[in-house]
Design brief:
9 strands, about 35% helix, three-stranded antiparallel sheet, alpha/beta
Length: about 325
């Protein structure tokens, strides 16, 4: 979008923040945001307005000079991707990108910017994730998390069946990762339990308990869709969730009106969720409706990796 429109978007964000009594926090992504022709102008403006932000990009332009400039402008965190071990990741991205990412972690650390490593888990790389945790900790990433592969069209969901993860296999991954997290809990890397199926895993192990005395009709945690964030696309459309087709308005509309309007309320109809609505963890989990949408073209469909009510046959 033109730079002037970007500034009006920031005005809209600040207006909504004032109206709901919250502070805005921006996650700016691409591609690589640094390559945008007005990137530094936008960062100067975000800094002038004292809006906190994080970048989500790639490692190829993170020099000491660039990171020092980002730090001066208030960048709190830079998120990088590692989608498997070296051979797998480089096949997904491009040759050399695995090592470039590890080098970027050190560059960010020298600039005192928190580094986050994010992994997209699929049937292709699922068995590599525990070993990847070892590498991330060794290279002193500040944060590690993973989410699940989310098909972007019905045809892709069918064609990429090899990327699909069976529910119990996914639970086994959480179990192996939890043991790694316990092993490294004092090593300085924060393990963000980003996938809300972690709640189900911890609940089954007795490590998460439903608090008593809470309202039955209130959402307290779980999927963020329509609860604590907007996504603003490059062309200026607002989405309830950036991982599925969930357009709710345009940045020309007052953001507060969109947030409280019927299009956003559509994504708050949790009582219509085909599986989650029957679960005692509805107010705290809800899995990933975007992954459900990717496979079933409906965010109300069951999360395809949720193992609840599935009996293991050993």
């Amino acid at each position: 979008m033109p730079f002037g429109r970007c500034l009006r978007v920031l005005d809209n964000i600040e207006d909504m923040a004032r109206r709901i009594g919250r502070l805005p926090y921006l996650y700016i992504t691409g591609g690589d945001p640094i390559l945008h022709s007005r990137f530094w102008d936008l960062m100067e403006e975000v800094h002038r307005r004292n809006i906190a932000f994080c970048l989500m990009g790639n490692p190829f332009h993170l020099t000491d000079e660039v990171c020092a400039k980002l730090k001066a402008l208030g960048c709190r965190k830079y998120q990088l991707s590692l989608d498997g071990l070296r051979e797998t990741h480089d096949a997904f991205r491009k040759p050399g990108s695995f090592d470039a990412t590890l080098m970027a972690l050190a560059t960010l650390r020298r600039a005192d910017i928190d580094s986050a490593v994010m992994t997209t888990v699929s049937g292709v790389n699922i068995d590599e994730i525990p070993d990847l945790i070892d590498i991330v900790v060794e290279h002193r990433a500040d944060i590690f998390a993973f989410g699940r592969y989310c098909p972007t069209s019905e045809d892709k969901a069918k064609a990429d069946h090899g990327w699909h993860i069976e529910p119990l296999r996914y639970r086994d991954l959480l179990d192996r990762c939890w043991r790694k997290y316990e092993q490294y809990k004092d090593n300085g890397t924060y393990f963000n339990l980003k996938d809300h199926l972690w709640t189900l895993y911890l609940y089954e192990r007795g490590l998460f308990k439903i608090p008593e005395g809470l309202a039955e009709d209130t959402i307290y945690d779980g999927c963020n869709c329509a609860h604590c964030h907007f996504t603003i696309s490059a062309e200026g459309r607002m989405m309830a969730c950036r991982r599925m087709e969930s357009y709710v308005g345009s940045v020309e509309e007052p953001m507060y009106d969109v947030w409280t309007g019927p299009k956003m309320d559509f994504y708050r109809q949790h009582e219509r969720m085909e599986k989650c609505s029957r679960c005692e963890l509805l107010r705290f989990c809800r899995g990933c409706p975007a992954v459900a949408y990717g496979y079933q073209r409906s965010w109300l469909a069951p999360d395809p990796q949720c193992w609840k009510e599935i009996v293991r046959q050993d």
